[in-house]
What does this fold into?
Amino acid sequence: MNTKEKRKIEEFETSKKVGMKEYSKIYTFDNGRVITMVALVYKQKVDNIVKEEMSFYNDKTSKKVGEACVHLNKKRLLKKLRIGYSILHPEDEFDANIGKGLAHVRAIVHPICHMESYFTGEFNEDTVFGIMDVKARYLNDKADKVD
It folds into this structure.
């Protein structure tokens, strides 16, 4: 692991997150390929700059008499989903802990899926497993082309 990847992991681990959940699933396909998927779901407070433009009109003449622009900085909760994977090499022996560990690191450093939503009810368990199922099938079909 290079220093850039280590820095990403350190930044992720030290950033303020609310309610971190980790989901994992192991997929075994007919062709013998084993893919381990790990999803990290968490909420994070972010700056949300709201730009409000206003125009002022004269009540009697209805002519525009001025304009203003207001910038408001509001903290909002943003829900995030990051999914990582690991693919078992055919010559290696399967170890679930190693697969989950590699997938966890990849979810932080190079996620196959990174989604964000201002709706904090998003990314429930069913949705996360549905997305992981689709990504696992994609990886199985395109494993020779994936880095």
Notes: The first strand starts at residue 18 and ends at 28. The radius of gyration is 22 Å. DSSP finds three helices and four strands in the chain.
